[in-house]
Write a structure and sequence with these properties.
The complex is a heterodimer. By secondary structure, chain A is an alpha/beta fold. Chain A is about 40% helix and about 15% strand. Chain A is built from 22 helices and 16 strands. Chain A has a five-stranded mixed beta sheet, with helices on one face. A five-stranded mixed beta sheet of chain A has the order 11-10-16-13-14. In chain A, strands 8-7-6-9 form a four-stranded parallel beta sheet, with helices on both faces. In chain A, strand 13 and strand 14 (about 430) form a beta hairpin. In chain A, helix 11 (about 240-255) packs across helix 14 and helix 17 runs antiparallel to helix 21 (about 535-545). Chain A starts with 6 loop residues before the first helix and ends in an 18-residue tail after the last helix. Chain B has two domains: about 15-75, Arc Repressor Mutant, subunit A, CATH 1.10.10; about 85-180, Glutaredoxin. Chain B is built from eight helices and five strands. The radius of gyration of chain B is 18 Å and the shape is globular. In chain B, about 50% of the residues lie in helices and about 10% in strands. Classes of the chains: A alpha/beta, B alpha+beta. At the A-B interface, helix 2, strand 8, strand 16 and helix 17 of A face helix 2, helix 3, helix 5 and helix 6 of B.
């Protein structure tokens, strides 16, 4: 198939794709979709897929086997969605290979096995199986980015186009000026999803205003934090959505240079995004003179090799340029001097993925979602002993309590809630009594917590606050790039003090030393990551002060985790 | 992926082919952008980045060797020494930590002296404590074996059993190799 030369060719192509999509779902064949992403592969989705392939190959079941992406419900992986002719599609969870033959046999006999079903993809319940959207995990979610997750094949551009894909890019490219695109994004009040929450529209505008060429637009898909995995799920499940957002970004900046920087360890996300780029080139949605509009755009994919610091803006740019990923002093900001010393607009994966919906429905539509200052939806991941582990997409402003106890189903049996760590390794935890705070960019901050990139960790009372704080600071110590002294020497000092406390050799004045040293690290570090490195420790110290004191004065760890040795520790 | 043993001469031909096929920079900027990718390719082929490969990449992309080593030693994923027969990533993400990965890491340090990254003395297994999240938190604490197979819900006993199994396997493999 050749490149599409103009809008009409695209419309024709889209109409064909839509028709194929219609036929697939209304035909007299079974449609069997298996969710394949990193998390389901770990739980045996590939085996399930091969098993189904084998069972279908003998021809007794007239079926189409499809691959789809992750739908966010990690707790129910591997999942299989089966649509029988004349019936709505039913999603079955926990479909390991041993259950596959059972399920198919039952379905052929006309039984539905409702005990394995997550729900039915229809407006209401059907023959005793509740509607999928009434599932407690999905009921309170508002899915924009994950709307097609688990429905379309992430490695097929046709699926994406058939479900409305690339229309926003076409609208921007052919009906709007770059200024109008930027204005629309400004109206939406979309804020950066990577953690800092800087308004995207304003960033794009200052990128436009800087009089230097060429300009660059970069997607930050590095995601090296130890407790978040939303970006790679998004890339695994709908890479074209991110690519479309990036294309719109390039058009708004009037540049032909787009980049996506993906962490090297996200192998599947990397492969799927690369495939998306190749498909877009083949169709002529990337390359020179896109759809005859005169606008050209080239997207390059670059990878890193496992360094948390490369998620920081200036470090990421050095990493792309093939240097050690170390941050530099600012100003100049990257919209003035970034990649190759040219204006560079850098946004998170999720930010770019939000753009197509804004262009399609208008900025004010988007601004009506969420709260006044934090508009739109946010992908969040919750880890720890919660019932419904996975990626959820919520409207900003949802109370934390609802997020933990409704969307993620609360704690599993036998666990008692102790706290929830927020903002990755960049902020402090919340205790049970503070959970009514809304999840948005601003409300968490005065409490020493943070939305960050949306990774939360619930911990129960088998986790010691001192030990957990040590883990979080030790992460920052390990990942410190070593460029500036406060971070390079300060974080090991904090770890050393915490180790002393954990081993029962803490001194009462240690808590003051922690605060004093932390202040230095916060005030003097070069980059944002150093400036927030002591935050989890300070948060823990404030919330669970009594545990720290117990460790020091009574040499007792109530969780029974800390070593409390007879000899003082040697720093590792 | 068969790691190259130390002391063996490295066959650079596959790397040279890949470089010539897929790493063809159009200008000096692109050449620099491609360095990390080329190193990743070398590590995929050899299991580590041997000095000869680093030299080849430097020559191919027109950068200095010390630039390559600057990157190899900066990023945690690169190895400048040959790994063991198997490679194990232990996830040290927050979810795994909350579920008890800390004890596994401590065990590795006490038993084998491995902090962060290291190989067991018999060369059977290279363990890398992955500072980040593997994204399979449902199976926490989780490890990834040889870059494709996941071992979930690890306890200390399960980890010990896994290591023993891999060491046994490596021994038989080594024995087979010597009789050939």
């Amino acid at each position: 198939m050749g490149r599409l030369s103009d809008r009409r060719a695209f419309e024709q192509y889209a109409a064909q794709a839509e028709q194929r999509w219609e036929t697939l779902w209304s035909g007299d064949r079974w449609v069997i979709s298996v969710g394949i992403s990193e998390c389901s592969i770990a739980k045996g989705a590939l085996e399930t897929y091969r098993h189904l392939e084998l069972l279908l190959s003998d021809g007794h079941i007239p079926g189409v086997l499809r691959r789809v992406g992750c739908a966010g419900w990690c707790f129910a992986e591997p999942f299989v969605e089966i649509k029988l002719p004349g019936q709505p599609p039913i999603v079955y969870g926990w479909m390991t290979t041993d259950r596959v033959p059972d399920l198919l046999d039952a379905l052929r006999r006309g039984e539905l096995r409702p005990e394995w079903a997550l729900g039915v993809r229809a407006g209401e319940s059907w023959r005793g199986i509740p509607a999928l959207r009434e599932h407690p995990f999905l009921r309170s979610q508002r899915r924009l980015l994950l709307e097609q997750a688990g429905i379309i094949d992430p490695e097929s551009i046709d699926d994406y186009i058939a479900t409305g894909g690339y229309r926003a890019f076409l609208k921007a490219l052919l009906e709007m000026t770059p200024e109008e695109v930027v204005n629309e994004v400004k109206t939406s009040n979309l804020r950066g999803r990577g953690g800092a929450g800087f308004p995207t529209g304003i960033k794009w505008e200052s990128g436009r205003r800087t009089p230097a060429w060429p300009k660059y637009v970069v997607v930050n898909s590095h995601e090296g934090e130890p407790n978040v995995f939303k970006d790679r799920r998004l890339l695994e499940t709908n890479p074209h959505l991110v690519l479309e957002g990036l294309l719109i970004g390039c058009y708004a900046l009037e540049t032909q240079h787009g980049y996506n920087y993906i962490g090297g360890e996200h192998a599947l996300a990397l492969r799927r995004f690369q495939k998306a780029v190749e498909q877009a080139y083949e169709l002529g949605l990337l390359g020179d003179n896109i759809l005859g509009s005169g606008f050209s755009c080239h997207v390059r994919v670059r990878t890193g090799g496992g360094a948390y610091i490369c998620g920081e803006g200036s470090a990421l740019m050095y990493a792309i340029m093939g240097q050690r990923g170390q941050p530099r002093t600012k100003p100049p900001r990257s919209v003035e001097e970034g990649l190759w010393k040219r204006p560079t607009v850098l946004n998170n994966t999720e930010t770019f993925a939000s753009i197509p919906a804004i262009i399609r429905n208008g900025g004010s539509w988007y601004a009506a979602l969420g709260t006044k200052e934090s508009t739109g939806t946010k992908l969040v991941t919750m880890q720890g002993p919660v019932r419904y582990l996975g990626v959820a997409e919520i409207e900003l402003g949802m109370p934390m309590r609802q997020l933990i106890f409704e969307v993620f189903g609360g704690l599993r049996d036998g666990y008692r809630f102790k706290g929830v760590q927020t903002g990755g390794v960049s902020a402090g935890p919340l205790r049970e009594e503070e959970l009514d705070v809304p999840v948005d960019f601003d409300a968490l901050t005065p409490r020493g917590a943070m939305l960050g990139s949306g990774g939360f960790v619930v911990f129960d009372d088998t986790v010691c606050a001192v030990d957990f704080a040590r883990y979080l600071v030790a992460f920052s110590r390990f990942e410190s790039c070593g460029k500036c002294t406060p971070c390079r020497l300060g974080t090991p000092a904090l770890v050393e003090i915490l180790d002393r406390i954990r081993h029962g050799f803490g001194r009462p004045e240690d808590l003051d030393v922690i605060r004093y040293a932390s202040k230095h690290i916060i005030d003097l570090s070069l980059c944002g990551l150093g400036q927030v490195a002591p935050m989890p420790l300070l948060g823990m110290l404030e919330r669970f002060r009594e545990e720290f004191i117990e460790h020091i004065t009574e040499r007792r760890c109530r969780a029974g985790v800390c070593p409390m040795t007879a000899v003082a520790p040697i720093a590792l | 992926m068969k790691p190259t043993k130390a002391g063996q001469t490295v066959d650079l031909e596959p790397l040279r082919r890949v470089l010539e096929e897929r790493f063809r920079p159009r200008d000096y900027r692109e050449a620099q952008e491609l360095v990390v990718g080329a190193c990743q390719e070398a590590q995929r082929l050899f299991g580590w980045v041997p000095p000869e490969a680093a030299q080849l990449i430097a020559e191919h992309l027109g950068v200095t060797t010390n630039r390559i080593y600057g990157l190899l030693t900066f990023y945690a994923d690169f190895r400048t020494e040959p790994p063991g027969r198997h490679f194990l990533w232990i996830c040290h993400g927050a979810a795994c930590y909350v579920a008890g990965a800390g004890r596994l890491v401590e065990f590795l340090h006490e038993r084998y002296g491995i902090t962060g990254q290291g190989t067991t003395p018999d060369g059977a297994l290279t363990v890398h404590v992955f500072n980040g999240c593997l994204g399979v938190c449902d199976l926490a604490p989780v490890a990834q074996l040889d870059h494709h197979e996941y071992v979930g819900l690890l306890s200390l006993e399960r980890l010990q059993a896994l290591i023993a199994e891999l060491q046994g396997e490596a021994q038989t493999e080594a024995a087979d190799g010597s009789t050939e």
